Amino acid sequence: MTGYDDRDGKIWLDGELVDWRAAKVHVLSHALHYASSVFEGERAYGGRIFASRAHSERLRASGEAIDMPVPWTVDEIEAAKAQVMQANGLSDAYVRAVAWRGAGEDMGVSSARNPVRLAVAAWEWGAYYGDSKTRGAKLDISKWKRPSPETIPSHAKAAGLYMICTMSKHAAEAKGCADAMMFDYRGYVAEATGANIFFVKDGEVHTPLPDCFLNGITRQTVIGLLRDRQVKVHERHIEPAELEGFQQCWLTGTAAEVTPVGQIGDYAFEVGALTREIAEAYETLVRR
Question: Which of 34, 108, 130, 240 is 20 to 30 Å apart from 90, CA to CA?
């Protein structure tokens, strides 16, 4: 498989479609030095991006949260995504929209005079966790914690917030795991490195309260599916000691979709009936 910088196809960049290999930025772009960047990961099924508008709205909201207003409207971002899908002849695909502070008059912490740029790319991408959808993913427990919302804009999907996620995932993969579960700054269960987490106990679902990490669009969708089925959902703080008592576990995210978890550290979970039911229901919903 070739690198992501060396492919055929088109990428939407600042208002026009350009050849994939020509979609470049300057080495002195502010985002490269100070992480002034926000992004969205989206999936298209049968030519339709699931929850597309919600993603575009969140991209703009994330930009506002890091004092980087994105100078494209939701409608313009939606049109850019449609152009990329059509130009690359894609039906089932992963779509990445990213906005960042480019190179300009500022080259320090301040970047108000630098332009905000926007790109949209799309490509075919299979299961994020490989065969974990059938056998259950194996997770490490990260040594890094999700920070307090007093220290970061935790509700933004901003690039800089993922640094400890990358470090955690690298450490997990070195141990033969697919991902890592993270605690928050208070010691409560938080999320995986790029996915929200759910647990099942005695037919009821428990999921961490997203008060210091991203309340994912897939997370919200799955909670809706559960409540439609009259399954009780508890959004609350979860203590580490509770992991031993949960029977099932799964991850949610645009890339992860609904992925069962078979193990977190020393704790084992079954890939049970409710996990499979919700995974199938989500698959049906996104392809409707």
Answer: 130
Q: What is the pLDDT of residues 97-119, one digit of tens each?
A: 999 999 999 999 999 999 999 99
Q: Which domains occur in the chain, in start order?
A: 10-123 (3.30.470.10), 132-286 (3.20.10.10)
| Vertex 82 angle, CA 31 and 49, to 5° | 90
Residue with tokens 């439609």: 228
Structure-token pair, residue 226: 């559960």
**Contact yes or no for 23/96 (Cβ under 8 A):** no
Q: Let me know: does 277 contact 248? Beta carbons within 8 Å.
A: no
Mapping DSSP onto H, E and C, the string for the chain reads: CCCCCCCCCEEEECCEEEEHHHCCCCCCCHHHHHCCEEEEEEEEECCEECCHHHHHHHHHHHHHHCCCCCCCCHHHHHHHHHHHHHHCCCCCEEEEEEEEECCCCCCCCCCCCCCEEEEEEEECCCCCCCCHHHHCEEEEEEEEEECCCCCCCCCCCEHHHHHHHHHHHHHHHHCCCCEEEEEECCCCEEEECCCEEEEEECCEEEEECCCCCCCCHHHHHHHHHHHHCCCCEEEECCCHHHHHHCCEEEEEECCCEEEEEEEECCEECCCCHHHHHHHHHHHHHHCC
What tens digit of pLDDT does each residue of 184-212 get? 999 999 999 999 999 999 999 999 999 99
Catalytic residue among 81, 157, 175, 201: 157
Q: Is 232 an annotated catalytic residue?
A: no
- Which residue type sits at 261? V
